Amino acid sequence: MSTYCLQASKFFASVGCSFAALALASTATTAAEIKVLTAGAFKPVVLAIVPDFEKQTGHKVTVENDTVGGLSKRIASGEAFDLAVLSPAALEPLVKNGKFADGSTQRLAKVGVGVAVKRGAPLPDISTVAAFREALVNARAVAYIDPAAGGSSGIYFSQLLDKMGIADRVKPKAVLVPGGLVAQKLVTGEADLAVHQVSEILAVPGAILVGQIPAEVQNFTVYAGGVSATARDASAARALLAAFLTPETRAMMKQKGMDAP
Question: What is the pLDDT, as a whole number, of residue 21?
């Protein structure tokens, strides 16, 4: 029995599923197609485990990413999916509206906001709130997720600029990204400072993580997964969800800038 199947069996048992469901999880006889919708910051984790999961189970996984806000709208409007990873706050109303199978949601990871520059560029001081504020004010252009797109880090950072009293100095030189890897704007030269979730900064080879923003103004985004109430193969989707809970995946998440929730 594969690691993923064992984890799936434990997961099923924890939510009180039947013995038949446990047997199906551990002895999949037909390959399933699993559609995963994931918030951008968690996408590197999904892509990292999919090849081994497919090899061990025979299932085929397709991955689509979007902002948390974008995914919430897509799911609420009826888009078909098998497994989705969003924030717990976004999951809650969707669960109430019957979009996710009862008892299928699990908290998976959390990630903080970091600052990046282009590889080879001088590293700004962001060790204190005052230093971080100064770095933002002095930057030529600052890239971050467009809050209007529904990205967690973009919404928080936009609000933080207001609280720090520098919105009028930073927002006019903002490079707003509707979704995806903000730090790519450093590589292209469109910005010289990027503020995004750590896991997504680490996914850009041409960017370097300066560090997380100061603890006093830090904001951690928690990600949780759930199985669709209308999943084509619920046992396969649950097995993939369980794969995110293994010690090996936890260790890999740590390397990608994420911590246990």
Answer: 38
Q: Which sequence spans correspond to the domains of the chain?
A: 3-110+221-255, 113-217
What is the structure's pLDDT at 84? 98
Residue 40 pLDDT level (bands cut at 50, 70, 90): confident
Query: Domain 3-110+221-255 is of which CATH architecture?
Result: 3-Layer(aba) Sandwich (3.40)
Write the CB contacts of 50 (distance below 8 Å, at least 6 apart in sequence): 61, 63
Q: Which fold has domain 113-217?
A: D-Maltodextrin-Binding Protein; domain 2 (3.40.190)
Beta partners for residue 84, in sequence order: 37, 226
pLDDT of amino acid 159: 97
pLDDT for res 30 = 80
Token pair 């979730």: residue: 197
Same fold, 3-110+221-255 and 113-217: yes
